[in-house]
Amino acid sequence: MNEDANRPAQYKRVLLKLSGEAFQDRGSGEPLNATVLRQNAEEIKKALALDIEVAVVVGGGNIFRGAFGSDLGIGRTVADHIGMLGTVINALALQSALESLDVETRVMTAIEMPAIAEQFIRRRALRHLEKGRVVIFGAGTGNPYFTTDSAAALRANEIDCDVLLKATKVDGIYTSDPMKNPDAERYDRISYQDAIYQRLQIMDTSAFSLCMENSIPIIVFDFFSPDAFVKVLKGESSGTLVSY
């Protein structure tokens, strides 16, 4: 018998950060792809089978990035609000994909949108998680000038998560971009302070700082590798751990 297959999960409640690119077809660049959405939903459902409570913060870069605003003559504040709406689109798409797999979900947003989602209320989010529902957070923090990485760190703290799992397309944090530099070295583990000091671009400084202040570890891992999410949850594949 494969002992790893039966290894219990190491966490009770986790927050998964999915960037906007996790929703798009990596070949064509199609902003929302049905096959990719279903794959994401299947990975999350596997985590629920481990008796883990899962919350998700989604990005919106596949639809709109604040940087696009300057090219369109849109100011940063308005552009960031447009980006927040993009995250809500992704949240609703992920919700639909999960519910097609019979997974109960709730979308909660930092901006009031009562016709399509619940407003984020901490106690209500905790109750949903305790009932086994996947809670998907949209609209970032609800404020311009804050990234969805910061939103992920904020929500992870607010709902008492054991770990923040940052989903990427590489298997951890490197000394430089491994897609551009074949000599880049991978960290198995790095401290919050070093991640901030070295200005590693995998997450923004405020996200690292918020997790450091409240002792929430961050694991950066390749979400697109088969069963990667479950392996991280079981401690079989750690990606890069950011902690003290």
**How many DSSP H or I helices?**
8
CA radius of gyration is: 17 Å
Q: Tell me about the largest β-sheet.
A: 9 strands, mixed
Number of strands: 11
What is the secondary structure topology, with strand pairs?
Elements: E1 13-18, H1 34-48, E2 53-58, H2 66-72, H3 76-99, E3 105-109, E4 118-119, H4 122-130, E5 134-138, H5 148-158, E6 163-168, E7 173-174, E8 186-187, E9 189-191, H6 192-197, H7 205-213, E10 218-222, H8 228-234, E11 240-243
Helix pairs in contact: 1-3, 1-8, 2-3, 5-7
Please, could you describe this protein's structure?
With 244 residues, the chain is an alpha/beta fold. It has one domain: Acetylglutamate kinase-like (Carbamate kinase). Helix content is 36%, strand content 19%. α2 (66-72) packs across α3 (76-99) and α5 packs parallel to α7 (205-213). The radius of gyration is 17 Å and the shape is globular. The mean pLDDT is 92.
Please tag this protein with its features.
36% helix; alpha/beta; 244 residues; nine-stranded mixed β-sheet; 19% strand; 8 helices; Carbamate kinase
Would you kindly provide a brief summary of this structure?
The chain has helices spanning about 35-50, 65-70, 75-100, 120-130, 150-160, 190-195, 205-215, 230-235; strands at about 15-20, 55-60, 105-110, 120, 135-140, 165-170, 175, 185, 190, 220, 240-244.
